[in-house]
Every structure is written in C-alpha cells, then in structure tokens.
Amino acid sequence: MKKILKYYKPYIPVMILIVLLLFFQAMAELSLPEYMSKIIDHGIIQGNLSYIYSTGRKMLVVSLLLMMCAIAVSFLASRIAAGTTRKIRYDLFSKVTSFSKAELDGFSIASLITRSTNDMQQIQTTSVMVLRFACFAPIMGIGAFIKAVSTSLELSWTIGLALLAMLLVILFAIKITVPKFAIVQKMVDKLNLIMNERLTGILVIRAFNAEKREEERFDTSNNDLTKLNLFVNRAISFNMPLMMLIMNFTAMLIVWAGADLVQTGSLQIGNILAFIQYSMQVIMSFLFISMIFIMIPRAMVSARRVAEVLQVETQIVDHVQAVCPEINGTVEFRNVSFSYPDAGENVLTDISFTAKPGETTAFIGSTGSGKSTLVNLIPRFYDVTGGAILIDGVDIRTIEQKHLRNAIGYVPQKGILFSGTIESNLKFGSDQAEPKDLEHVAAISQSLDFILEKPGKFDEVISQGGTNVSGGQKQRISIARALARNPQIYIFDDSFSALDFKTDLALRKALKENMGNSTMLIVAQRINTIKDAEQIIVLNEGQVAGIGTHHELMKECQIYREIAESQLDKGEM
Ligand SMILES: Nc1ncnc2c1ncn2[C@@H]1O[C@H](COP(=O)(O)OP(=O)(O)OP(=O)(O)O)[C@@H](O)[C@H]1O
C-alpha cells in the first residue's frame, strides 16, 4: 500500500485545498436548513413577504457558492486521480519492460494487462470517491448532527435509531462483498488469459473445428465472472433502496414524534423541517462513508496487485561498477551451466567454447537440446547459474546492459514485428538509419524485392503482430532489423527456418559478404545452413557433444553424422 500511497505525495497541497473547499461546502450545506426553517417560521407563518425574499436571496447565494465548491472539488479530485494513475501506469510499464524473462514468466501476460488496466481503473475511481467524500462526509455528518441536536434534543433519538439500522445494513454488505473482490480480479485475469490465448490461436481453433469447445470454455469463465459480479453488485445496490427506506422511515418518525412537540408548543414547524433536513444530511454522510468503506477494500486488492509488480526486485540489473568496454565480439562460454528458475535440472551443463570475430559459430542439436537457451544467455535474457560468459574477456554481468545489447543484433526464433510500417520496424534496429542503409540491409536479408513490390514500399503498413506479412517475410524483416544495427555480434536463433533453400542460400552468401568482422552465432536445424561455418557446436541434452567444422564432425561426432545422414544425400555428404 505504501508503494501506491507515495504517488499521492506530490498532490498534498492540492489535497489541502480540497479539504478547505469541502469544509466551505459542508458549512454552506449546513446553513441551508436553518434558512429554510426561518423562512417558514418568520416568513410564511407570519406572512412577511420581504423576509422570504431576502432570506431566499441569501439561500441562492449560498447554493451558488456550494455548487462552485463542489465543481472545484470534482475537478481537482479527478485531476489528482488521473495524474497519479497515469504515473503508476507508466512506472508499471517501465517495470515490466525491465523484467528479465524469468520475472515475466512469473506473472502471466494477461494478469499484467489486467493489473495495468482494470486494477488501475479501480484505484482511480476509488481515489476520486475518497477525495470527494472521505473528508466531506464526516464534516457534514458531525456538523449536521450537532445542528440537529441543537434544533431539538428531544428528537435526536430518531437519528440514533436510523444510524443503527444503517450500520447493520452496511456491515452486512461489507461482510458479504469484501471477500469476493480478490476473486473477481483473479477471474478477470483468467478471462483475459483465455481471450488472449484464443485470439492468438484462432486459426488453430478453426482448423480443428474446436470453436464450440472453446466457446464453451470461455462461456464457463465468463459465466463465473458474471455470476460473481452480479452477486457483488446486487449486494451493493441492495444497499441503496434499503437506505432510502430508512431515510423515509426516519422522516416519518420525526414528523410523528415532532407533531406532539409542536402541539405542546416546545417546537416550531420550521424546526421540524430543519431537523428532517439535518437528519437526512447525517444519513447521507453515513451513506457516503459506507460507500467508501465498500470501495476501499476493492481498491486495496487492486493496489496490492499493482504493488506486487512494482516491488519485484529485477534480478538482472547493472553491476554497481558496470563498465562499457569497447566490444570487438569475441564471445567465450566458460564452463557455463544454466537451469530455469523453479526447474530443478540443468538445461545446459558445463558448456565451453569461444566464438571469434569474423567467424561463424553454429549450434545444432535435436529439439530441446538447449540451443535457444544458450544464445539467450548472451544478451542476458537470463543469467548463467554456473560458470561465466565473457565478451572480449569481460564477464557480461559486469558490462552495462544497454551497452552489451547495443553490440548485439538479435533475431529471435519467432519473427516478431510491431505495428507501424516496414521502415519503423527496421529503424527499431537503429533510428538514425538513412533510407539507403535500410535498402542495403533489406537487400542483404533478401527482403528488398518483396518490399519494393508492396504498394507502400518501405512505408507499407505492418499490422499488429505482423500478421499481414508471411512467416518468411517476417523472418527476413527481423534479420534486416538486426543488420540495421550493424552490431559486433549477430545472434540468429533458428532464423532461417521459414526460408526456402534458395533464399536461405542467397541470404547466407550476402551475410558472409557483408558481416565484416562481426561474430556470427547461428542456431539452425538444417545442416545446409551451417555447413560452411568455421565452428559448429553440437548440443545434446544440454551438453556439448562435439565441436569442429562440418568435415571434422562428420568424422568424429556420431550425433552430427546422424543428423547429416538424415538431411543430406550421399553426394552432399
Ligand atoms: N522458459 C522456460 N522455462 C522452463 N523451461 C524451459 C523454458 N524454455 C525452455 N525450457 C526447457 O529448456 C530445454 C531447452 O529448450 P530450448 O528452447 O533451449 O531448446 P532448443 O534446442 O532451442 O529447441 P528447439 O530446437 O526445439 O527450438 C527444453 O527442455 C525446454 O523444455
């Protein structure tokens, strides 16, 4: 909670202003019943028209002031609530983007989205309510109560009775709704997760004719959430009519008990009306306070969920004495071992090799042998759990992360593009790239032809997730993006798999000619893709099964030979 409350600190002066305005508003509201009582007793009953007019004018001025205070408070409260939630949402986004892969895996993507949207909305709405009523309601309630008692002490028991009835209603509402709030938020998470997964996998669902089954699954979660929401909202909305009933009943009770006092001459009619208004103000204040008491626990659940993300200590951080050395690109794995968080077994064990600038180092092995995991350790998506990775002899954990990643051109296994244009995607690699640079990298990655065929050329729109380009085109644009960076180290994580043989060959040839003195690390499934590499590392169950050139491995490494035999014909071998 403290983590969230600190966001309101800069607004303390505005909050003080709100409290002052609310104080004036409450005082103004409290003065109205008294004017009303005077109009009845001294104006209407005594037929004094000029008194009615002059008091009426005063009431009008007070009402206008009251209205201005209320508008100002609403305006300021909304500003504070919107300002704080904007800042929290920004910090939430920054925090999540700083998360290592392991920390991201700890929260589901759907939950992170719910936390930064739905939960933030709860916090914002409650902030406005609290700022408007948390201070106003007690001032108003206590003030109205004092005024009511000073108007008629004999009738004050009616207010006590009304408050007792309301207290019972509110306690009941709080008891049954509050425990449900945390469950509601978790259900929203689940619904978002299902929605996210189903929309991403819509084509698979269609291909397997699984729409009905998926709809039913969605429906089950949707119904659960609807039922719970209905239950909570009904319990809350049931409050309102009950409160109204209590208010009306209290008014009746006051008139009934007050009539006797009027008859005996100890109270005037105007006083009864004033008393009714004061008691309504007390009840309304109580109602506001009760609403806040119901909303706060809900917002606290949301605030806790947001704080959970904000207070994650990012594991992969810059070393206190992080350095920014000049990087030439020699990548050395020194007895590296790695296991995923919460997974007991090592995915990589005792890996050692050196990849040199100007050379290609390739990784091959069966699926799940740890190839992607190995290359993901170089940009520090995860940190090694044993041994060390060094670049030009410097442990990467001591290099500033930004500096390290600037030296790497990473092409992920799954081509990922962002909504925008082809140009904006390529400039992701380097925002200073000139059009001729973009054309150059597009040519190397064998993308230029299909880009120029598009009506918009480099300005062609890329839709969300790059769904309007083919898998192979997506991979080639991803490669061009990495090339635009002109880095010292290239990582291609199985990035040629969606390319046909001819394009694969042309791309590798162009890469070879243009890579200069960069270090090239290529994960591949196809022997043909890596056959010419200066160094091939064969991985088997997370361990190095062989290191050498194609010819050396064909002679010495059984696993490599088996892979080659399964892919190449006799002539090629
Ligand atoms: N985020 C993760 N959390 C836990 N285990 C993981 C995670 N990612 C991968 N693994 C496991 O690590 C092992 C190695 O996976 P990795 O993706 O590195 O293999 P790979 O050789 O690249 O496979 P492929 O050729 O199929 O891409 C696998 O057993 C996999 O189940």
TrEMBL record:
<feature type="domain" description="ABC transporter">
    <location>
        <begin position="331"/>
        <end position="566"/>
    </location>
</feature>
<dbReference type="InterPro" id="IPR003439">
    <property type="entry name" value="ABC_transporter-like_ATP-bd"/>
</dbReference>
<dbReference type="InterPro" id="IPR039421">
    <property type="entry name" value="Type_1_exporter"/>
</dbReference>
<keyword id="KW-1003">Cell membrane</keyword>
<feature type="transmembrane region" description="Helical">
    <location>
        <begin position="12"/>
        <end position="28"/>
    </location>
</feature>
<dbReference type="InterPro" id="IPR011527">
    <property type="entry name" value="ABC1_TM_dom"/>
</dbReference>
<dbReference type="Pfam" id="PF00664">
    <property type="entry name" value="ABC_membrane"/>
</dbReference>
<dbReference type="InterPro" id="IPR036640">
    <property type="entry name" value="ABC1_TM_sf"/>
</dbReference>
<feature type="transmembrane region" description="Helical">
    <location>
        <begin position="278"/>
        <end position="296"/>
    </location>
</feature>
<feature type="transmembrane region" description="Helical">
    <location>
        <begin position="59"/>
        <end position="82"/>
    </location>
</feature>
<keyword id="KW-0472">Membrane</keyword>
<feature type="transmembrane region" description="Helical">
    <location>
        <begin position="236"/>
        <end position="258"/>
    </location>
</feature>
<feature type="transmembrane region" description="Helical">
    <location>
        <begin position="130"/>
        <end position="149"/>
    </location>
</feature>
<dbReference type="GO" id="GO:0005886">
    <property type="term" value="C:plasma membrane"/>
</dbReference>
<keyword id="KW-1133">Transmembrane helix</keyword>
<dbReference type="GO" id="GO:0005524">
    <property type="term" value="F:ATP binding"/>
</dbReference>
<dbReference type="GO" id="GO:0016887">
    <property type="term" value="F:ATP hydrolysis activity"/>
</dbReference>
<dbReference type="InterPro" id="IPR027417">
    <property type="entry name" value="P-loop_NTPase"/>
</dbReference>
<dbReference type="InterPro" id="IPR017871">
    <property type="entry name" value="ABC_transporter-like_CS"/>
</dbReference>
<keyword id="KW-0067">ATP-binding</keyword>
<keyword id="KW-0813">Transport</keyword>
<keyword id="KW-0812">Transmembrane</keyword>
<feature type="transmembrane region" description="Helical">
    <location>
        <begin position="155"/>
        <end position="178"/>
    </location>
</feature>
<dbReference type="GO" id="GO:0015421">
    <property type="term" value="F:ABC-type oligopeptide transporter activity"/>
</dbReference>
<feature type="domain" description="ABC transmembrane type-1">
    <location>
        <begin position="16"/>
        <end position="298"/>
    </location>
</feature>
<dbReference type="InterPro" id="IPR003593">
    <property type="entry name" value="AAA+_ATPase"/>
</dbReference>
<keyword id="KW-0547">Nucleotide-binding</keyword>
<dbReference type="Pfam" id="PF00005">
    <property type="entry name" value="ABC_tran"/>
</dbReference>
<protein>
    <submittedName>
        <fullName>ATP-binding cassette domain-containing protein</fullName>
    </submittedName>
</protein>
